[in-house]
Design a protein that fits this description.
Strand order of the largest sheet: 1-4-2-3
Structural class: alpha/beta
Strand content: 15-25%
Distance between the termini: 46 Å
Number of helices: 6
Order of helices and strands: HEHEHEHEEHEHEE
Helix content: 25-40%
Shape: elongated
Radius of gyration: 23 Å
Largest sheet: 4 strands, mixed
Length: 278
């Protein structure tokens, strides 16, 4: 039995270690190097996937044939650097190389204007492995999905749990996707604790989409597999800033030990509040 279990873990580790390659392409307006909202969305759609463990990124910038070779080389370099700066700022990702390649030749198969439009681009080459794949559990009943959770408007007792909705994080990070919505949700905790001064809580972080050989998801800031813990700590630190005393709170990361029954994988990326004393 032990041998079979060992082989199973080895097989899972082997699957996990398989590295993939993907090129993400973003486009620019003529003679511009600032990222458009559409370009940012293209990058976000892939980079925010929490199943990814990114090992390297290379960036190549290009231009159309309008302008001098010297100016086009500068413009293509600026485009590549603009993407690199965005990945660093938004996802704490460093790039292996950032290069401007200058202009590309026109393609005769399409119109000149379309060919030039296609050449105003940056190609982001990403090497990565995956912790697991997103899976959907069948027969999801959205009405009953959160039936065991309470809200701060309920009369809460020890053992009750509140799931903090609209608290979405960027993939692999402790940065909120929508800070304004997140603050609204977090301030509900502050209000409740101020109105109930004897109540204590545990802040519980959970993640999705990790394989059986991993206890937690990868945090791109810490460089460790402790994402559920660092997200719980993010909430803890915010409540401290708002005047809630540390002796009323603990925080813990649970990885993917407690998935929501009947939910899809992405719904396991969540933060919950456990009432420990009233």
């Amino acid at each position: 039995m032990n041998r079979i279990y060992f082989l199973f873990l080895f097989f899972c580790s082997f699957l996990y270690s398989q590295e993939e390659q993907k090129s993400v392409v973003v486009f620019f307006n003529s003679n511009e190097f600032d990222l458009s909202s559409e370009a940012e969305g293209t990058l976000n759609a892939f980079i925010s996937d929490e199943t990814l463990i990114i090992s390297s990124i290379t960036i190549e910038g290009f231009c159309d044939d309008i302008g001098s070779n010297e100016n086009n080389l500068i413009l293509s370099t600026n485009r590549a650097q603009s993407v690199a700066n965005y990945l660093k700022k938004e996802f704490n990702l460093d790039c292996k190389s950032v290069v401007g390649k200058g202009e590309l030749s026109l393609t005769r198969k399409i119109s000149i204007e379309q060919s030039r439009k296609n050449n105003r681009k940056v190609v982001v080459k990403i090497a990565f492995s995956r912790t697991s794949e997103e899976t959907v559990i069948s027969n999801k009943d959205s009405e009953n999905l959160y039936k065991n959770y309470k809200t701060f408007s309920d009369k809460l007792v020890v053992g009750d749990k509140i799931i903090i909705k609209n608290l979405l994080f960027k993939g692999g990070l402790t940065i909120f996707e929508n800070p304004e919505e997140a603050i609204v949700e977090l301030d509900k905790i502050v209000t409740y604790l101020n109105e109930n001064p004897n109540t204590t809580i545990e802040i519980q972080g959970h993640v999705c989409c990790i394989g059986v050989v991993h206890s937690d998801a990868h945090d791109r800031f810490s460089g460790k597999n402790n994402l559920s813990h660092t997200r719980a700590q993010k909430i803890y630190d915010y409540l401290i800033e708002k005047g809630i005393t540390p002796n009323r709170m603990t925080h813990m990361g649970y990885g993917r030990k407690f998935p929501i029954p009947g939910g899809i994988e992405s719904e396991n990326k969540r933060v919950e509040i456990l009432i420990t004393k009233v």
